Amino acid sequence: MDVQEIDLLAVREEVDALLAEFLTDKAHAAAGRGHPVEVVDTLRDFLTAGGKRIRALLCVVGWYAAGGRGDMAAVLRVAASLELFVAFALIHDDIMDDSGTRRGRPAVHRALRTCLGPSERAERLAAGGALLVGNLALIWAQELLHTAPLPAERHRAVHTLYDAMLEEVMYGQYLDVMAIGPDDDIDAALQIVRYKTATATVERPLQLGAAVAGAEDATLDLCTALGLPLGEAFQIRDDLLDVFGSTDGACAPGLGDLREGKRTVLLALGLRAATPAQRRRLRHLVGRADLDEHGAAEVRAILEATGARQRTEHMITSRYQQVLRALDSSALPSAASRALHRLAVTATQYTS
After folding, report:
1. Whether the predicted model's global pTM rises above the 0.85 cut
2. What is the pLDDT of residue 308?
3. Does residue 285 sit within a domain?
4. 8 Å CB contact between 270 and 244
């Protein structure tokens, strides 16, 4: 019998409960072996600090989309694995960017720095400690994955997709860190978005859930048709919010991406459309570690004046509409289609 509605809140609660139980077991095991339990506590604190659990939700919706029914033990385990994977990715990303906060709390490497007290080596040691916490998150993500109760052929399909996701994220992160190419290259900025975020945030989670249910190639291809534009819209929205904040005030404008000189689609559009004088000012201001609010306001004004902000919004909207067209022309179960409509709104129109 078809499911009438997918309760996304209940799915999130089940994933959170699975993660809590898993980490409790890890803490008990660490204590019993004399390992530092604070590592588990640090990871638990990171996971409970927030996050939309969008990857886990998409994984479960992908399972329903491919005809998944009945016992959800396997798909919930894969979904929870994705949340540990993203914890790994974000902890490492914060180290590489030297971000001060994550979800309103000190980033892991900054929190560990505080614990170390005054020391000339504290910065390096804290970064190393956070790196290892992230590594454990990835190891445990793999453990959740390979212990999901699945037939051998479905295990192989799931692991193949998961391995592809890991590889894509590493390539995207490398491109982001190395900042290769001109800073006004819109295609290069989009390539970073696709590899670093779009595949791992939407496409692969959908495919992983579908693979747990034994999906055929046509369903996996549909996951790509939905996942890539939705994942791109999600990241482009995130980059826009970091610079401008949200109109409802839920997200304040930030300095992080501007100080880092992050190669975003927004910045590439601004540089491409700027006058020579505006381009000089953008390149003088963006990427400065000492950029203040006055300088950031000038950057925002230029991005507004060049139309970069408006064109970025248009890119988000066009990708959202592309997702809706793909959904409307698909033969997905109605409950999965409705859930994907709701998640598409969450991914493209969120403000905090």
Report:
1. yes
2. 96
3. yes
4. no
